[in-house]
Amino acid sequence: MQDGAPVHQRFALAELKKKKIPLLPWPPQSPDLNPIENLWRILKERVKKRSKRPKSIAELQDILKDEWKRLTVEDFNGLIECMQKQVTECITNKGGATHY
Q1: Same domain, residue pair 50 and 98
Q2: What totals of helices (H) and strands (E) does the chain contain, helices first?
C-alpha cells in the first residue's frame, strides 16, 4: 500500500517492483486508518485541558510523557472498537475522509 508520498516514490517503489510485490490501490488524500492517529488527538486534547500550558519543548515533552502514562486500556480499546465503523465509512466515501 502506498499513499503517493514523495519519500515512498523515491525509495520504496523501486524495491517493491524489484521484489515483485504487488501494491494495493490507495486513493490520494485518504484517511490514515491506523488507530494511533486518533491516539494523538486524545493526547492533544488532554494537553489542552491542562491548566498550565507548556512554555518550552522540554515542558511539552514532560506533559506528553505524563499523559501517555495516564492512558488506560479503555482508551486503547475505544480506538480499536471504532475501527470497523471507520473502515466502513472510508469505503462508503470511496477512500475519502471520515469523521473519525
Answers
A1: yes
A2: 6, 0
Residues 37 and 24 reside in one and the same domain: no
Judgement on whether residues 11 and 40 belong to the same structural domain of the protein? no
List the pLDDT tens digit at each of the 100 positions of the chain: 566 667 667 778 788 889 998 877 766 656 667 778 888 889 999 999 999 889 999 999 999 999 999 999 999 999 888 888 888 888 888 877 777 6
Q: How many whole angstroms separate alpha carbon 24 and alpha carbon 3?
A: 10
CB 67 within 8 A of CB 47: yes
Domain count, the chain: 2
Per-residue buried b or exposed e for 57-82, using 16+ beta carbons within 10 Å of the residue's own CB: eeeeeebbeebeeeeeeeeeeebeee
Task: Give the domain extent around 40.
Answer: 31-100
